[in-house]
Specification:
homodimer, 11 helices, DNA-binding
Chain lengths: ~200, ~200
DNA sequence: GTCTATAGAATGATAGAC
DNA sequence: GTCTATCATTCTATAGAC
């Protein structure tokens, strides 16, 4: 398999070159540790083992790196969101979506905090149209057609609960599968979802 | 009432001068908007209407400002924590603690994200002893003596749910009292707490 | 307690050689 | 695609006058 082909198969975004993907990946790791504003291009370059100029050859600005990194991560959720919308509103679609959101949150727990709470990312989500649409879609899917105050507060709580729990010190030592199973169970309970199967995450 | 006396009564920390309190207050507001790393001393000085040098007269380093700002905010929770520990483990102590945590989170919702998720603040909480103790106490009180995996996941979820919900776009327009009442109700439900009274926040 | 002025380092970003 | 070298700007922090 050619490197280009391998990139196509594994890359998070088809329109990124292999070098760009590598750059966005290490940038995202650094963002998770130090925040976007706490991560300089020098740090990214050092981590890649190249100079700043080389990084600027991949992306014209630092903001472009942030956009690529966030897109890379959100793309993982899009398939789940597509499926949920296709199945339409209802407990089954919501349950399937939650299962995938939880698995993703557990698997990518180091990055969740940055995506949900970093001020620089928040600005991006608010300004970039594609991101706006994505956030809208996710909220809509989580609400499942409901609009009551109770439903909105519940949706807000559950989104934050999942995102925040995976990085919480209290669950730091837990096995990822156990954590995912527990999160799914508690989430179902909280949302009055019947719950199906064992709740295993695989 | 003399200015010094007014400061004593209203200040969040007795050992801060009036000028220091003002500085920490505007700094915290800026931290909430731009993150700690995204807030420069120039921005703080501009907001205060003075020069950087004047700010450096109040605090020797930027970190000292962050420490003071975080202390100021956490102090608000200490009384509630003291009471919870005095009452000892149990549903009543936990319920009272949650009620105060929720009211505080709603009232100070713009700052909650910074305190819970800003990388610079997280570093501080991990390194400064008094902060470590505080976080330990809060976790312990939320667990209420339990140590099971289920209890730990629940505690992690509820802490993040409250903190994250108050800043969530989905509840942006809600009346603070309504939001607090809903949060308390949902939290009690999630934790299997009996719930008492109306859930009103006053 | 505030100011002007500045030191010294780091930042994002660019030009041009290889 | 990577390098060296550099630019203008900003950053934290300090010195010293008022």
């Amino acid at each position: 398999m050619s490197p280009a082909r391998a990139d196509r198969d594994r890359a998070d975004l088809g329109r990124l070159t292999e070098a760009q993907t590598r750059t966005a990946r290490v940038a995202l790791e650094l963002f998770a540790s130090h925040g976007v504003n706490g991560t300089s291009l020098q740090m990214i370059a050092d981590e890649l083992g190249v100079t700043k100029a080389a990084v600027y050859h991949q992306f014209r600005t630092k903001e472009a790196i942030v956009v690529a990194a966030v897109e890379m991560e959100l793309t993982r959720l899009e398939a789940a969101l597509d499926a949920a919308e296709a199945t339409g509103p209802g407990p089954q679609a919501l349950d399937a979506l939650l299962r995938q959101v939880i698995d993703l949150a557990v698997a990518r727990h180091r990055l969740v905090g940055t995506l949900q709470h970093d001020p620089a990312v928040a600005r991006l989500l608010a300004e970039h149209e594609p991101f706006q649409r994505f956030v809208q879609r996710l909220s809509h899917a989580l609400l499942g057609g409901k609009r009551s105050i109770e439903a909105r507060v519940r949706a807000a709580m559950i989104g934050s609960a999942i995102g925040g729990a995976v990085t919480h010190p209290l669950v730091a030592g837990l096995d990822p599968d156990v954590l995912a199973a527990q999160l799914l169970r508690q989430t179902r309970r909280f949302l009055d979802l019947p719950g199906r199967g064992t709740g295993a995450s695989g």
